[in-house]
Amino acid sequence: MVKAVPIIDDTSVGLFPIRTVAQLTGVNAITLRAWENRHGIIKPLRKASGHRLYTQDHIDRVHRIVALLDKGMRISEVSAYLEQESDRIDPDEGDGAGDHWRRLLDRMLAAITRFDEDALEAVYNEALSNYPIREVTRRLVTPLLVEIGRRWSTGEGTIAEEHFFGFYLRNKLGARFHHRSRSARGPRLLMACLPGERHEIGLLLLALATNEAGYRPVILGADMPLEDLALAAERTSSAAIVLSGLLELPADLLRQELPALVEAAEVPVFMGGRASVRSLDAVRRCGIEPLGADVETGLAKLEQRVPLGTLSLIHISEPTRHD
Predict the structure, then answer these.
(1) Tens digits of per-residue pLDDT, 257-289?
(2) pTM score, whole prediction
(3) Residue 212 neighbours by CB under 8 Å, 6+ apart
(4) 254 near 245, Cβ under 8 Å?
(5) Rounded to the nearest 10 degrees, what angle do helices 159-178 and 142-154 cross at?
(6) Strands 289-292 and 269-272, how do they pair?
(7) Measured in whole angstroms, how far is the alpha carbon of residue 57 from the centre of its chain?
(8) Is 54 helix (H, G, I), strand (E, B) or coil?
(9) What is the tens place of the pLDDT at every residue in 3-14?
């Protein structure tokens, strides 16, 4: 018996039409439908009208499929691989790898609810001692941030928990950024959070990823006024401006401030984070390229528009005369 597809109403939040998913992932709508109908590896929700709607989990799954295809796996092999992936045995734990990451997440979450920094540090260091930093970010840090946000939105958790973990992780990522490799010689990227946006974690994760790829990020941090960015990009000889946001974008920002920045800047402007997903069409109308909420996909989009071989803007002043 074929399992019925859940029917949802038009008021559901956190859901995206197929056109938005195609823009965020680079996988066209025809291919997404084929992955659903022919291969059964994507199963979107449906509106009463029959239109497909996708969650962030669906989008993450599309990114995973693309990564497997890029490694040379055939689409006919992907479905079985994904089914086995969560059950794959971790050699050190003797249990499913997915269960292992879930246990790490639960331990970190328990430490956060107790405001126990020593316990939080112990679990995080344990993960880093056994796995590459990018794996820890993808399979532990990012899901933990989502879970904390969910708990806060449903009333399960508190703002204090979010602030506690945000401060801890910001310090960890800041230290990593401070001790980053200085050998990068790629284009500079001017990176900042949107006005009113105090969640810097996404910005720092993307900045670290760009640095590891060879870019030279210049970070301005949280709650950055947009009117200063064009001049800052010029003075730093940046090849692009990258904004980050989690919160819903105010109407004035979309109507006036963002278009004004695009007009004033001599370089392309990008936006990452969940704000770029929620307001994708409006962001595009401002002349800004959305990067989505996935760090690796955002980095890939940056590399398409600002290749590592791109020279940053060079501003040469008149030589000083000495009479």
Answers:
(1) 999 999 999 999 999 988 888 888 889 999 999
(2) 0.67
(3) 181
(4) no
(5) 160
(6) parallel
(7) 13
(8) strand
(9) 444 545 444 456
